[in-house]
Amino acid sequence: MNDRRYVAGVDTSTQSCKVVIVDPATNAVIREGKAPHPDGTAVDPGAWWDAFLLAQERAGGFDDVVAISVGGQQHGMVCLDEAGRVIRPALLWNDTRSAQAAEDLISELGNGDREVGAAEWAKLTGSVPVASLTVTKLRWLADNEPENAARIAAICLPHDYLTWKIRGTGRLEDLVTDRSDASGTGYMSGSRDEYLPEILARALRRSISDVQDIILPKILGPWESAGTGDPARHWDHMIVGPGCGDNAGAALGLDLKPGEAMLSLGTSGVAAVVSPHPTADATGLVTGFSDATGHWLPLACTLNASRIIDAVARIIGADYKEYDELALSVSDAAGLTLLPYFEGERTPNLPDATASLSGMTLANSDRAHVARAGVEGLLNLMRGALDAIRALGVDIKTVYMVGGGAKSAAVQQLAGAFLDAHIEMPAAGEYVALGAARQAARVKDAA
Questions:
Q1: CA–CA gap between residue 114 and residue 91 (Å, rounded)
Q2: 446 within some domain
Q3: 140/270 same-domain check
Q4: Are residues 262 and 239 in the same domain?
Q5: What is the mean pLDDT of residues 306-314?
Q6: According to the model, what pLDDT value does residue 421 have?
Q7: b/e map of 97-126 (b: 16 or more CB within 10 Å)?
Q8: Residue 3 has pLDDT above 80, yes or no
Q9: Percent of the chain with pLDDT over 90
Q10: Contact 61, 46 (CB under 8 A)
Q11: Does the pLDDT value for residue 2 go beyond 70?
């Protein structure tokens, strides 16, 4: 028997499952494994389980692991029948078929007045419904697949499902979640760690009494154990943590404290700030999520981020190294302004907008100034996301930049001035999985 002293963190993301085995004494990654998930916005949750089994095998198994937690993609709707069987493929966060359902739910809560409805949703749940939230997918299911909606015995999220499978009991009443992931459903209170049955009933077009028998995962505290692993797989030596949503997991992996933000510059941009108090934004730009430690994690997303640099680099015919050199060779964009809405935009909410380059003169119509305008356009967009959170009374002192777009030397050099914050550049890492591992270690210590 191996010396059991490590912890495991899992990231069950849209694209893949990653398992990292970590020494909690040093936070060093000892080994890791990865397996792909299927493409698409509707996926059989069984594929996540298969990928997890392969990833843990590639990570060398769990013989020497004492605790495990799962971080994962948020919002995905997993519906189970009374026997614990998946009723239909899970609708993922990026499935937009419920966009009209989101609008309907907002209007209904405001008795036909969208502005009133949005304010009420923000007050109750911390967020205004958009197509990504689970609550809108449940309304879509009720309207479009009523026979499947009628079979629902339990509703959970992707990370909840994997945690449940790791435990191996098969009992619906053993489903658990955490406050960070539950806060992204749209039917959890934005200020209290409890579900809102009246919202769930509204989503499913039922009475409150009709949804009382539907099992929702128990919301565990940040360091509360969900139990142990499946004895049939010889995992009963592992304590299982509550897990977390992916953004909360990344924040935990970075060990963010109140006043510290994570700015992820991937295909899209994510600004998330640890806050000591809940938020409610009736405009819908900021979602009032909870974090994985007992604080809150208000979050704003942009549709455009690293692709801004990609697009401008193509325009001027530069690789990334030359692009940075050009952007830093001039002191500013000399009046050249890029509105970087290449894919429309979420923050600000301009879904049909396009990008534009304005203020061109003979003095700034060269590759260097265009490159500089691209970097400034990206950072101004990210500043807008951070300012939307600041407007809710959330202090931001330090910004930790991660993601592919953060590798740009020009972005790194200019970020502090444009974002009005101290910038930190953490080493590249699987921060969702590392956050889950950090949680597992804390849960083990608290057990």
A1: 25
A2: no
A3: no
A4: no
A5: 96
A6: 96
A7: ebbebbbbbbeebbeeeeeebbbbbbebbb
A8: no
A9: 96
A10: no
A11: no
- pLDDT of the residue at 346: 87
Looking at the fold, whether 320 and 226 belong to one and the same domain comes out as: no
Between 134-144 and 197-204, two packed helices, what is the crossing angle to 10 degrees?
40
- Helices 367-390/306-316 angle, 10° precision: 170
**Average pLDDT, integer, range 49-60:** 98
What is the pLDDT at residue 201? 98
* pLDDT level of residue 1 (50, 70, 90 thresholds): very low
Based on the fold, state whether residues 133 and 279 are members of the same structural domain.
no
* pLDDT per position as a tens digit, 190-235: 999 999 999 999 999 999 999 999 999 999 999 999 999 999 999 9
Residue 413: which CATH number?
3.30.420.40
CA dihedral 107, 108, 111, 112 (to 10 degrees): 40
104 is catalytic: no
Q: Tokens standing for 356?
A: 């534009």
3 state SS of 278? coil
| Within-domain flag for 187 | yes
Q: What is the mean pLDDT of the chain?
A: 96
Check residue 351 and give its pLDDT. Answer: 86
pLDDT average, residue stretch 376-405? 96
* H or E element in which residue 276 lies: none
Beta-sheet strands, E only, within 73-173 = 78-80, 90-91, 154-156
Using CA atoms, how far apart are residues 425 and 383, in angstroms rounded to an integer?
A: 17
Taking only the tens place, the pLDDT of each residue in 269-294 is 999 999 999 999 999 999 999 999 99
Q: Which of 216, 247, 278 is the last residue of a domain?
A: 247
Task: Return d(Cα 35, Cα 59) in angstroms, integer.
Answer: 10
Exposed e or buried b per residue across 32-69, where buried means at least 16 C-beta atoms within 10 angstroms of its C-beta: bbbbebeeeeebebebbbebbebbbebbbbbebbbbbb
Vertex 191, ends 99 and 285: CA angle to 5°? 40
Per the domain annotation, does 444 fall within a domain?
Answer: no
- ∠ CA 227-231-2, rounded to 5°: 95
CB 340 within 8 A of CB 377: yes
User: Residues 6 or more apart from 140 whose CB is under 8 A from it?
Assistant: 91, 97, 98, 101
**Six token digits for residue 264:** 């992820």
Total-model pTM: 0.93
Catalytic residue among 11, 95, 160, 246: 246
Element (H, E) at 261: strand 260-265
Among residues 305, 294, 318, 292, the alpha carbon closest in space to that of 380 is found at: 305
- AA identity, residue 12: T
